[in-house]
Amino acid sequence: MIKLLSFFARFYTPGKFILFLKTTGKKVHFLPKLLTIFYCMQDQDTPKFMKLILMGAIGYVILPFDFVPDVIAGVGWLDDAAVLAAAMHFAGAYIKPEHWEKTNRILPFCRRSS
After folding, report:
1. Domain carrying residue 88
2. Measuring CA to CA, which residue among 1, 103, 84, 3 is closest to residue 43?
3. What predicted TM-score, i.e. pTM, was given to this entire model?
C-alpha cells in the first residue's frame, strides 16, 4: 500500500496540480473535493502519513494515464472519483471547516458536500 501511494505521490507537484486545474479542472465535477484535500494536505496539523495518502490521491487524479484513462468519454473519470472518495473518507477527521472555506473562496459556486 505504501509503495502504491508513493508511486502516485511522485506525480504530484504544486506546478502539475495548478496546470491540471487550469486545463482540466473545469471539466471535473469533483473539483471542490480535490481542492479541499489539497488544503488538508497543506495543513501542518495533518499527519505525514495522511499527507502521503492525499498526495497519492491527487497524483492519481492528475495523472492522465491511470487504470481507466481519462480520455475515455463518460467513464474516464470514474476511477479518479473513486480514489478521491476513498481519500476523503480516510482524511475525514483531518478535513477542517477552514479547508472547505478556502475551497469556497476559490470556487464560490460550490457548497460543502462531504
Report:
1. 2-21+28-106
2. 103
3. 0.72
